[in-house]
Amino acid sequence: MEDIGIETVVLGVRARDDDRAETLVDAVEDIRTSNDLTVIVAYIFDKDSHNETIKQVVGADSEHVDPDELASRMSVVRTITDLLEAASIDVETRAAPGTSGDGLVDIAEDVDADRVIIGGRRRSPTGKALFGSAVQTVMFNAPCPVTFVRDQE
């Protein structure tokens, strides 16, 4: 049986992932099977945070901003991109407005991802039921295996 390597990874990040940037990059390096790995750093905006971020990062006068360009300006994306490039890993940045779980699944399908990596915090079952879970959405709907990187508390 031929060993099929991982070529494309979607790494889902949000603003609150600053503290786990190195851990997320370590997770990428742990599954790396060749030097031909490309990581799509996917920053998912919901509609409110997307519009607010445009005002903060670009300015209130900007009506049309490319979501991928906006995502590449986010500090967590810059940090993770720098760490991946330092490890000689090819990096692309993607963004999509919408719910984070559905947005990550869409990107994973679009790039034919071999793996999705997403971070998160531990939540009670009640918290998941009341507020939903982007991680659950990704785990149940992604077209490939998903690695969950939990906060180290």
TrEMBL record:
<dbReference type="InterPro" id="IPR006016">
    <property type="entry name" value="UspA"/>
</dbReference>
<dbReference type="InterPro" id="IPR006015">
    <property type="entry name" value="Universal_stress_UspA"/>
</dbReference>
<protein>
    <submittedName>
        <fullName>Universal stress protein</fullName>
    </submittedName>
</protein>
<keyword id="KW-0614">Plasmid</keyword>
<dbReference type="InterPro" id="IPR014729">
    <property type="entry name" value="Rossmann-like_a/b/a_fold"/>
</dbReference>
<comment type="similarity">
    <text>Belongs to the universal stress protein A family.</text>
</comment>
<feature type="domain" description="UspA">
    <location>
        <begin position="9"/>
        <end position="150"/>
    </location>
</feature>
<dbReference type="Pfam" id="PF00582">
    <property type="entry name" value="Usp"/>
</dbReference>
